[in-house]
Write a structure and sequence with these properties.
74% helix; mainly alpha; 106 residues; globular; 5 helices
């Protein structure tokens, strides 16, 4: 939860095609307030990815994977880790392309 709200409220600007910076601001606050909730890291990574901020997205996903490495018993956690690994593959591909082009954020 985010100060009485939910991660959905933090992600709402992204879902509605709105201000990605505002989404990042809210999601960073969600991570701060709920550091043990993997979803916060995942949605933060998705938002960074949407902004082509691949290194920041990669860090958020790595934080998520580290957080959940010992708690893979729940189906939700396994699903979240699977989604995180898939997004991480996309990020790695985009980072490789950016390095090949000589840029960090293509």
């Amino acid at each position: 939860t985010i100060s009485g709200g939910t991660w959905n409220e933090a992600k709402l600007p992204l879902l509605l095609g709105g201000d990605l910076d505002k989404s990042i601001e809210h999601l960073k606050e969600a991570v701060r307030l709920g550091p043990k909730h993997g979803e916060n890291y995942f949605f933060l990574a998705e938002t960074y990815y949407a902004k082509h901020e691949y290194p920041l997205a990669e860090k958020a996903l790595n934080d998520l994977l580290e957080l959940t490495q010992d708690s893979q018993k729940s189906r939700d956690t396994r699903f979240l880790r699977k989604e995180a690994l898939e997004l991480l593959k996309k990020i790695t591909k985009n980072l490789g392309a950016a390095h090949a082009q000589g840029t960090e954020n293509p």
